[in-house]
Amino acid sequence: MTSISKQFAVIGHPIKHSLSPHIHLLFAEQFDLPMVYEKLEVELETLLSSLDKFKGQKYSGLNVTLPLKHDAYLLCQELSEKSQLCESVNTISIRDNQLHGDTTDGVGLIRDLINNGINLNQAKILLVGAGGAANGVMADLIECSPPTLHLTNRTIKKSMLMQSYWKSFAIKNSVSLKVSGIDGEDSFRYDVIINATSAGFSSNISPIEDIMINKETYCYDMTYSVETPFMKQAKNMNAIVSDGLGMLIEQAAESFYIWHKKKPKTKNIKSQLKKLKLI
Ligand code: ATR
Description:
By secondary structure, this protein is an alpha/beta fold. It folds into two domains: about 5-105, Leucine Dehydrogenase, chain A, domain 1 (Rossmann fold, 3-Layer(aba) Sandwich), CATH 3.40.50; about 105-245, NAD(P)-binding Rossmann-like Domain (Rossmann fold). It has eleven helices and twelve strands. It has helices at about 20-30, 45-55, 70-75, 80-85, 105-115, 130-145, 155-170, 200, 230-235, 245-260, 270-275; strands at about 5-10, 35-40, 60-65, 80, 90-95, 100, 125-130, 150, 175-180, 190-195, 220, 240. The strands form two sheets. Strands 2-1-3-5-6-4 form a six-stranded mixed beta sheet, sandwiched between helices. The protein has a six-stranded parallel beta sheet with strand order 9-8-7-10-11-12, with helices on both faces. The chain is globular and about 60 Å long. The protein starts with 5 loop residues before the first strand and ends with a helix. About 45% of the residues are buried. The structure holds 2'-monophosphoadenosine-5'-diphosphate (ATR). The site of 2'-monophosphoadenosine-5'-diphosphate (ATR) has 16 residues, from helix 6 and helix 8.
């Protein structure tokens, strides 16, 4: 039997250090699937023309990363329910010259939290951030029906806007969605704090105050490849800390499933990336 290599790429800016090609190729190896997966530098200004170009070429699918996820959502001809809700696309399937957009970031986060032993339907959760990354995981977080889901952000008005945007979906899933200050003054204790801000790249200061963390708090940072001030803070408080590498692998697994209808094993991917000296 002869199999033809399908062609995929991840697009974004900057893209040089993306691990996606390596992760997808490791998944493909599990099924002896011939596949080409590239990384292509695409800036916001050229996204529309680039997507038009990709449609006419041999690509079967694209992963979309920062800062293009919202604009990719605006440009796809068809959208999954979840990407419509989150207004974000990280996975594009190209069929019949049409772009079908989906988002797998939320699934990636939830699977990684579960892999780390978090029982989401019993966890009091604080989500820090109100940008694309935070909104991109909201649908899946709400669907897990945590007893508490609080939002906070440096610009608290944006958390309030986010709360009103997600209110009806939260009610539908019996989730009480509240906005909390970043100072922990309401003295609420969280089981899980998820950092979805980009603060790790622009500042040396954690986006929340120490008082919000204790040694039982599970602190998850959606960032990977750098130790953010939030991660350092959580370590100093002797809390349990995870970076977002597991989320990256799990969201990639879901993209892989969308494209190939095959579920790759994710358990050994981190050690394989380590062996390849990629992390
Ligand atoms: P992304 O798509 O990565 O979410 P974004 O939409 O620009 O990017 O959102 C960035 C998020 O990180 C916002 O919540 C932002 O807070 P503001 O809304 O107050 O700008 C947050 N953020 C960025 N730098 C930060 C910093 N130094 N401290 C705290 N929060 C920060």
